[in-house]
Write a structure and sequence with these properties.
Layout lengths: L2 E4 L3 E5 L3 E7 L5 E8 L52 E3 L8 E9 L18 E9 L4 E10 L4 E10 L5 E13 L6 E8 L2 E9 L3 E6 L12 E5 L10 E6 L5 E7 L5 E7 L6 E3 L4 E3 L3 E6 L2 H16 L13 E3 L1 H4 L5 H13 L4 E4 L28 H11 L2 E6 L3 E3 L3 H5 L18 E3 L5 H17 L4 E4 L21 H19 L4 E4 L9 H4 L4 E3 L6 H11 L8 E6 L12 H8 L3 E5 L7 H23 L1 E4 L7 E7 L3 E8 L10 E2 L9 E3 L5 E3 H6 L2 E2 L8 E9 L4
Parallel strand pairs: 21-22, 21-30, 22-23, 23-26, 26-27, 27-28, 28-29, 29-30
Antiparallel strand pairs: 1-2, 2-3, 3-4, 5-10, 6-7, 7-8, 8-9, 9-19, 9-20, 10-17, 10-18, 11-12, 11-14, 13-16, 14-15, 15-20, 16-17, 24-25, 31-32, 32-33, 33-38, 34-37, 35-36, 35-38
The chain binds alpha-D-galactopyranose (GLA).
Amino acid sequence: MAIQVIGDRIFQIETEHTCYQIQADRHNIVAHLWYGPKTGGQVMDYLQDYPDVGFAGSIADAGNDRTYSLDTRLQEYPCEGTGDYRISAAGLEDSRGLDLRYEGYEILDGRPPLEGLPGIRETDTPLQTLVLHLADKVTDVTCDLFYVADEENDAIIRSARFENRSGRPVWLDRTASLSLDVHHGEPVDLITFTGKHNKERQFTRRRLEQGIVSAGSTRGTSSHQQNPAVILTGPDTTETNGWAVGAMLVYSGSFRADVEMDQLGQARLVMGINPYGFRWKLNPGESFQTPEAVLIRSDEGLEVLSLRFHRLIRQRLIPPRFRNRPRPVLINTWEAAYFNFDRKTILDIARQSADMDIDLLVLDDGWFGSRNSDNAGLGDWEVNEKKLQGSLQSLIEEVNAAGLDFGIWIEPEMVNEDSNLYRTHPDWVLKAPGRGPVRGRNQLVLDMTNPEVVDHLFQVFSKLLTDNHITYVKWDMNRSLADRHSDHLPEDRQGEVHHRYMLGVYDLLDRLTKAFPDVLFEGCSGGGGRFDAGMLYYTPQIWCSDDTDPHERTLIQYGTSFFYPPDTVGSHVSASPNHQTGRRTSLETRAAAAMPGTFGYELDPETLDDLEREEIRGMNQLYRDLQPLIFHGRYYRLTNPGQGMALWEISDDDRVLVQGLVYETEPNALRRRVRLRGLDPEAVYKDADGMRRTGQALMTGGLLLPVTSGTDAPVTVILEREKTQ
Ligand code: GLA
């Protein structure tokens, strides 16, 4: 049993390696007791200290007991206006405040369904859920806190559900998915993944000082700038040592992760929908469910934390039918032709790709309406038969005849003003009354809060996928939201626009992926602007970044790897010089950087000579051979790119792939040495030249890397584990 009740007011959730303890205290405050390694049966309430701290308020029930203050107490779901002056998890727009107190609990087998939101899936390995019932007697708002225990993955999945039991409407203005308090006594580091378009998820680590640090997005998407996944660690935590707690939101819209280091040296993480601009009306009897947040703890460093997140995402998040299914090596037309193509361009790419042993051609932007640049046509999803010189299905037949499957690019959520859709339905966009709309890439955002819009899109894309033999869809989203007004919603619900937008997107994704379960959907938002667990629930892979420069990619993929496994990472070989940075690199370098992901190409085959085509055939063969390993193997970061090389290892019980780029080759130097991870110390591993080394030696003495030459020198070493008789 993962969940246990000790006495009748202490709740313990044990996973394989971790223990979480909660107490409903004497004032019915839900106190946080412990999140750490197992305690050997010890209840950790003795760590709670009750100092009389100046200017720390005491709740009325504590009478004159100045030592009881919510400002000093570790809690599970702190509210505003209770004398706790730190960041809070929940708040109402009500001068009476919100004061949630414990009322009871339930333990459920499995997990309650999450309506309208992506979430952690049930599999054959059972889940168990602790529900704590909280209520505010004054406003008659209740809140259920959910703790879904996934023992095997060492995960606790948190969320909250509010209900208005009063006779009048209330407005929620802050509804976090989780709050987590950390005991005092040592410095705490915060790791976030920051960036911009073309440079997503850069690893960023800082020591917390007294005060608040925020990572978040107000863009209506999880964003290129911050990722909805953060890590708290001890000051000395490394890849292989020390504690680390990762928190990952299963959500793709505006979010916020606030972390406060308080006056007593206690850290608090609050994470959920961004409260900025958020105001949700609950009529009597209505409820509101927050997105889920996955908490995983490791006491063996960041590497184990990542391995646990990878396993959870593979087992419990991505659509199950794609779990062990080989994914196609694809070629995408974007960097090959941008908007400038006709039927011949596409068929030339297809035929040459078939000759290079590529599986699938993706026709990117520009195939529909009057879409010949990014200024017009979005929203008009009728095939541009003039440009394609015939029907889409006839083009697909020719591509199929050449030996490739066919995939297509769509951007459902957007519209250009220069489009028939906008001319017919100008009220279908988000726009503040009396103001001009905020434009981004010359496009406006469709009002996904309006079911009529979602139904229209479902019909349009269902027809596209029914009429044409399409096996892959790239679902793009190419601007940030700005306007917060929907003509579809009443005035008192305008604070709901950005979250309802996301619910509309999820609804469309849900309906389309259910209607076309065999179509592989890849997420994209200007590359990795919506690379999050919410999207991965529907799209098992996401285009990682529009930056295809292999050197840059190793930095982006390094940051991405802390939460997301390589099989979710769309990564392709593109042209040299690179279109984003102008950097010149060899094909081998580009292939090494793209290999730990869902492999493919973004280039015009016409530009390749015979030798390069031959090389590409070899690369595809190698990738196909390695794909099962990449998709289920354990992923280890062997170096931090700050050390001058980005190296990773992916291993299972049979093989070990050691790969990466050495950024600079040093003259007169010994070969670089890198220690491998996670091998069987007793086993013997053999490389392609027949060299045999024990796992123990490779993990302690390490592996001598091949001699490198030049900059961004590729390394690919494959070791086979010898079978014991
Ligand atoms: C975004 C995507 C690109 C490409 C273009 C098309 O930027 O990330 O890969 O599909 O849109 O407009």
